[in-house]
Amino acid sequence: AAVKGLTLKENPSPSLRKDKADTVIIGGGCVGVSLAYHLAKAGLKDVILLEKSELTAGSTWHAAGLTTYFHPGINLKKIHAYSIKLYEKLEEETGQAVGFHQPGSIRIASTPTRVDEFKYQMTRAGWHPTEQYLITPEKVQELFPLLNMDMVLAGLYNPGDGHIDPYSLTMALAAGARKYGAQLNYPVQVTNLNPRSDGTWEVETPLGVIQAKRIVNTAGFWAREIGKMVGLEHPLIPVHHQYVVTSTIPEVKALRRELPVIRDLEGSYYLRQERDGLLFGPYESEKKMKLQDSWVTNGVPPGFGKELFESDLDRIMEHIEAAMEMVPVLKQANIINTIAGPITYSPDILPMVGPHQGVRNYWVAIGFGYGIIHAGGIGKYLSDWILEGEPPFDLIELDPNRYGKWTTTEYTAAKARESYGFNNIVGYPKEERFAGRPTERAGALYDLLRSKCSMGFHAGWEQPHWFYKPGDEIGYKPSFRRTNWFDPVGREYKQVMEKVGVIDLSPFGKFKVKGTDSVKLLDHLFANVVPKVGTTNISHMLTPRGKVYAELTVSQLYPGEFMLVTGSGSELHDLRWIEEEIVRGGYKVEIENVTDEMGVLGVAGPYARQVLQKLTAEDLSDVSFKFLQSKHLKLSDIAVTAIRISYTGELGWELYHRKEDSVALYSAIMEAGQKEGIDNFGTYALNALRLEKGFRAWGAEMNCDTNPLEAGLEYFVKLNKVYVL
């Protein structure tokens, strides 16, 4: 049938029709349907989507439907931009109207700090071709004549922003998915997921079993239930989000063109035109906002699909008053509808997208606080990743493996509260957020150092960013100008350059690899050669397209036994890649994640050797312990694996040891270095030192957007290696 003949009324098809699939997508909200559309359009056969009730049930159908090019990050802007460009042409492609309005949007600055933030964002706008302008109050008033201009200092304007009808959008994507051959089945509930030894899945439903090469969890606020079927506890929690719709407002009706969407960031709400009235939705503070935490402990009520929560205007009254102050015509408006529905939040508000470590061929696209603007771009991003074996660009901030066993339900709830309340907070560089901290993973030195420094959060760990001295302005005081840590970081930099410093590097991800094929595996995994026994090198895992997927230090501790070390944020990101290569190549190896069992101290500076030599009988001279060598030795009777390497660029060692020994080892080193003037330094000084040395960092100078030659890594890439895929 011609696609134009399809109507918005969907006819459920509760039959499976097929018992085999390449990809089974679980969940028929806009994200899941977008993935089905993109996979099918790209030519993948046997794409099946299963939805337990009807398409858009859950969070999609009641969403406010905002679309924006703006994002404070870099690559997530690509997701937003792709979505908007797709939505612009969907009606033409599928014959389904999508109700897309593009009046633009303005973020309002009503404080000098917010103007600084807008200027900062404009310096980042050149990364992406989408339009973004810092506009004057006069231009703001021209675009949105109903504002109280006493409150407006500037605006950040994105032409092309707007809003779309989420139901119509999903139905258009569904029509496209069917047109290209995908099968959308509903109401069909997934009752169980059974992994098979070959990495495929049995997807159980009341209508029969489907054998699938891979499964993708796009189940919205049911995603936790799907995760539990495969033994995972996804850190997700539903929050109550309300928005209010007014009756006709004469001043709005009299306008000749649709008002742009505004985001009053100090008032913490969005506001847009809805027919001849206005629609506005606030984000309450973490104290006032409401979680649906009973769904986490007891599961989502079985029949919940297109239901809403009881509205609670008292909870958002301060935001209603702020909106009336900013848009005075609201004072005479009548509220005709209040929508209160569930939106799923991850701890940091960003979705979890991609393959999951520890479970083969299980992918997720879950935890969307802004599902409508993300749906199109994420559908394309995941489709490309599935079909090509690597992500089209780097989005490690969405990696589902950024969370781990340390991510408890209590942590998730505390962070979701914070993230919701901070929706419109000023976004400073080097932002730290403090809810849910410390986690159970904090680190062995946390209690000892916590009062002496400003801690940073790294994948559950607490790691010193910079240390306090008498006279310093202590605490976390971010700014777009000079911060309170500027001088202290310079002091620590000088300490390492001229004397000797100690840094806690325990958050590193650490893996042990051993077995018959260990050398063969690492030769396959890395672009560098395999280090000899007792030596270390810097190695990079490259994607099939030659992008830098990861940077690790590789040490051969004993014949055929290796230690691999990566950055804290990359621990499970890198482990997943390695595990997949082990399975794909049939390598006979064992890999063990020892991240939580091992502490790491870095000692660096011209006096590093002098200090450490006092604690060991091992000869640490340059002749006996060369750069990039590794040795097992005892420091003050504590067993360590010492690697002569330092990210500072100065003389130094990294000391790997049992976490239980961290306090004793740290204390012994500090005691031994008194004469040399030893002191602590943090990660901010480390970063300054490595930049001046010209050392690259994964996630900054290299990632999945860069090849190693672009990043200046040719020294570590042996192009004459015989590389067998």
TrEMBL record:
The FAD dependent oxidoreductase central domain, residue ranges: 388-441
GCVT N-terminal domain: residues covered: 451-721
FAD dependent oxidoreductase domain: residues covered: 22-385
Coiled-coil spans in chain: none
GO cellular component: mitochondrion
Protein name: Dimethylglycine dehydrogenase
